[in-house]
């Protein structure tokens, strides 16, 4: 993966930079790369140590910050300054986490409930983005130390259910840590990639990714087709994981030794020791039938059978979530072709057995479950580096897709970040009587005016039979198929005339271009809103001018001379304002013209009704 190239300008040799894959986890985080020789994904670790970096940050008295195993030691002695589970706070307001506030042993600020949360450490305040950046910075420097080369580009994973704000927060954390985040991908997608699922182009499969970590449980049902990962459903429990297994063991020992909760609460040292022993026991019982140890004078013992009995209800809970996820995705277990196990807690035998029994087939557990997400992120990084050309990974649309409507406005049919494949249809109509064609121009981008977006294609729907304005029903449908190709179809529903074109919306845009376009839309948001309002007023004015002129022309004989000249004046003024007036001026003039035409419009309506009552049809006259 580390390529050597020659810089044509300087003639010097350059090493092309490696893109790393990062699993930024709630409990543990790690970095993986594609090994330059074996071409296989590997997790980075220093000899003999673990690849996992606990996602824990400790702020020392003198401004020193430690991350990982070092920081973990402070969980007991210095809980107020030791931050864990920062990922749970990403993109959240205090209101979002209010019900779980007691979970956090450090200070989460609760004064301004609507805005994003901050954490207070001493007299300093940190956002979850800054906290995650500390972890990412540590991962970056570890990777650089191990690889002995600078690392500045990464793919970072997030849970499939993360919303836009949470994804953006993760991206920002990366930036803050000095990383260029080339892509954010879903954890279950990464796990499937690590197993090579979806790598073959023509593969079509529905798979389940079961992820039981330290504190969270996620089940995702994915459809893979033609290298596209579509999240069909997600379910889970954001407060269920391996930590709860440990807690069960601790509580079991407390019962056995008559230790009360008060006793434990007042002896944090003992509490932490028991917790660590419980975790040790849990891991030990994966290979042995019994665990024996001691803390102080307490003799601690637990058998594999006892452990399984303790956690059985928790495992059952995860299976209920699996059932719900299947239901939401519209599948039964028989429809699931592969099951991928993710997260350290899936090392527990009972978990593997029960999940396998639930789905009625063997599960994928060949790779290290706590590394598998990072390994998949590395596979994705390799694809982005261009080393795996025949494989394009798309699971969401990076930018909005829409059409141009009256006045050059962008009408979005498929918003950015929509899952693909997808289909959206909307109805439009004609502006003029007898209009026989409609021009359809397809754009990509986030700005309100199409001229600021990127034009992808345009075509004419012709042959619409003559009808009054507003009567034709033109259905426009946007369909992004599994190949990432946009198919735009326009069909006039009354006559059946239709026109279809194909566009490749994603191609030709780099991640940087996408980002620039997004930045632009944020920068210009205010100005865009104003422009949109003006264009809408202009459009309304033009339509009113048209319809009033037509009406006056048809009904001349019923109007007074004054009404005729005043209306003509008002129309002329409005026409001038459409060209050069402000939104408010145009709207004022629209109102004036409406006021002016109201008396005679009403008078003519009365007349029409009288005629209708005496046997004539209303529509004969108008
Ligand atoms: P996260 O995705 O939440 O960051 P991980 O996937 O790293 O978390 O999982 C961490 C959890 O896995 C911890 O609760 C840890 O105790 C548990 N775990 C790690 N190894 C084992 C093992 N051999 N047996 C049982 N549980 C394990
Ligand atoms: Mg995880």
How far apart, in Å, are the first and last alpha carbons?
74 Å
Helical element count?
16
CA radius of gyration: 32 Å
Name of the CATH first level of the largest domain: Alpha Beta
Largest sheet: 6 strands, mixed
Q: What CATH architecture of the largest domain would you give?
A: 2-Layer Sandwich
Q: What is the mean predicted local confidence, pLDDT?
A: 87
Q: What overall form do the CA principal axes indicate?
A: elongated
Oligomer: single chain
Low-pLDDT segments, ≥5 res: 1-14, 615-622
Please identify which CATH superfamily of the largest domain we are dealing with: ATPase, nucleotide binding domain
Unique bound compounds: adenosine-5'-diphosphate, magnesium ion
Overall tally of structural domains: 4
Give the helix level as a range of percent.
25-40%
Number of strands: 28
Q: Give the strand content.
A: 15-25%
Query: The CATH topology of the largest domain is what?
Result: Nucleotidyltransferase, domain 5
Q: Helix/strand-derived class?
A: alpha+beta
Indicate the topology.
Elements: E1 4-6, E2 13-15, E3 19-24, E4 28-34, E5 41-43, E6 53-54, E7 56-59, E8 65-67, H1 69-72, H2 74-77, E9 82-84, H3 94-97, E10 107-108, E11 119-121, E12 124-126, H4 128-147, E13 153-158, H5 164-176, E14 180-186, H6 187-194, E15 204-212, E16 217-225, E17 228-237, H7 242-256, H8 261-265, H9 268-284, E18 290-295, E19 298-303, H10 304-329, E20 338-342, H11 349-359, H12 372-384, E21 401-405, E22 409-414, E23 422-428, E24 438-444, E25 454-461, E26 474-480, E27 486-492, E28 498-503, H13 511-523, H14 525-554, H15 561-580, H16 583-613
Parallel strand pairs: 3-13, 13-14, 15-20
Antiparallel strand pairs: 1-2, 3-4, 4-5, 4-6, 7-8, 7-9, 10-11, 11-12, 15-16, 16-17, 18-19, 21-22, 21-24, 23-26, 24-25, 26-27, 27-28
Helix pairs in contact: 4-5, 6-12, 7-9, 7-10, 10-11, 14-15, 14-16, 15-16
The protein binds adenosine-5'-diphosphate (ADP) and magnesium ion.
């Amino acid at each position: 993966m580390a390529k050597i190239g020659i810089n044509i300008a300087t003639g010097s040799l350059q090493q092309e930079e490696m893109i790393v894959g990062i699993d930024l986890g709630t409990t543990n985080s790690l970095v993986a790369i594609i090994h330059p020789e074996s071409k296989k994904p590997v997790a980075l670790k220093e000899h003999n140590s673990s690849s996992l970096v606990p996602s824990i940050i400790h702020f020392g008295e003198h401004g020193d910050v430690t991350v990982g195993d070092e920081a973990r030691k402070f969980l007991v002695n210095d809980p107020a300054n030791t931050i864990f589970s920062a990922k749970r706070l990403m993109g959240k307001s205090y209101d979002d986490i209010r019900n779980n506030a007691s979970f956090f042993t450090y200070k989460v600020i609760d004064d301004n409930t609507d805005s994003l949360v901050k954490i207070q450490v001493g007299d300093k305040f940190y956002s979850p983005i800054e906290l995650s950046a500390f972890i990412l910075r540590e991962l970056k420097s570890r990777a650089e130390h191990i690889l002995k080369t600078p690392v500045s580009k990464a793919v970072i994973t997030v849970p499939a259910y993360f919303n836009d704000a949470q994804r953006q927060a993760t991206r920002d954390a990366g930036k803050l840590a000095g990383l260029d985040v080339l892509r954010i991908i879903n954890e279950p997608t990464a796990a499937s990639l690590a197993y090579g699922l979806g790598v073959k182009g023509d593969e079509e499969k529905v798979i389940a990714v079961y992820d039981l970590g330290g504190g969270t449980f996620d089940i995702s049902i994915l459809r893979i087709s033609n290298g596209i990962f579509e999240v069909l459903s997600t379910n889970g429990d954001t407060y269920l994981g391996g930590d709860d297994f440990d807690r069960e063991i601790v509580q079991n020992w407390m019962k056995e030794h008559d230790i009360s909760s008060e006793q434990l609460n007042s002896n944090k040292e003992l509490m932490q020791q028991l917790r660590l022993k419980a975790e040790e026991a849990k891991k030990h019982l994966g290979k042995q039938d019994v665990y024996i140890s001691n803390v102080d004078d307490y003799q601690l013992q637990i058998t594999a059978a006892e452990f399984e009995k303790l956690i059985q209800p928790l495992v059952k809970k995860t299976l209920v979530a699996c059932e719900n996820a299947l239901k939401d995705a519209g599948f039964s277990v028989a429809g699931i072709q592969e099951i991928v196990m993710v997260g350290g807690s899936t090392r527990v035998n009972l978990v593997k057995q029960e999940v396998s029994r639930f789905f009625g087939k063997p599960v994928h557990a060949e790779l290290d479950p706590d590394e598998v997400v990072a390994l998949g992120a590395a596979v994705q990084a390799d694809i982005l580096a261009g080393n795996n050309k025949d494989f394009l990974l798309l699971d969401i649309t990076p930018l909005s897709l829409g059409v141009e409507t009256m006045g050059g406005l962008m009408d979005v049919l498929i918003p950015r970040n929509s899952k693909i494949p997808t289909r959206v249809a909307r109805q439009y109509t004609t502006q003029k009587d007898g209009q026989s064609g409609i021009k359809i121009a397809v754009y990509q981008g986030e700005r309100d005016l199409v001229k600021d977006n990127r034009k992808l294609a345009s075509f004419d729907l012709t042959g619409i039979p003559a009808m009054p304005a507003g009567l034709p029903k033109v259905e426009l449908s946007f369909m992004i198929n599994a190949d990432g190709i946009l198919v735009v179809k326009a069909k006039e529903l009354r006559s059946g005339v239709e026109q279809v074109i194909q566009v490749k919306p994603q191609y030709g845009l780099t991640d940087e271009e996408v980002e620039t376009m997004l930045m632009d839309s944020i920068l210009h948001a205010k100005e865009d809103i104003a422009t949109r309002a003006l264009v809408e007023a202009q459009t309304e004015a033009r339509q009113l001018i048209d319809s009033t002129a037509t009406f006056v022309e048809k009904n001349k004989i019923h109007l007074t001379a004054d009404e005729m000249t005043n209306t003509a004046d008002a129309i002329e003024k409005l026409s001038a304002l459409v060209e050069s007036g402000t939104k408010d001026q145009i709207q004022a003039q629209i109102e004036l013209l409406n006021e002016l035409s109201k008396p005679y419009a009403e008078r003519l309506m009365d007349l029409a009704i009288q005629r209708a009552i005496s046997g004539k049809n209303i529509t004969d006259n108008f």
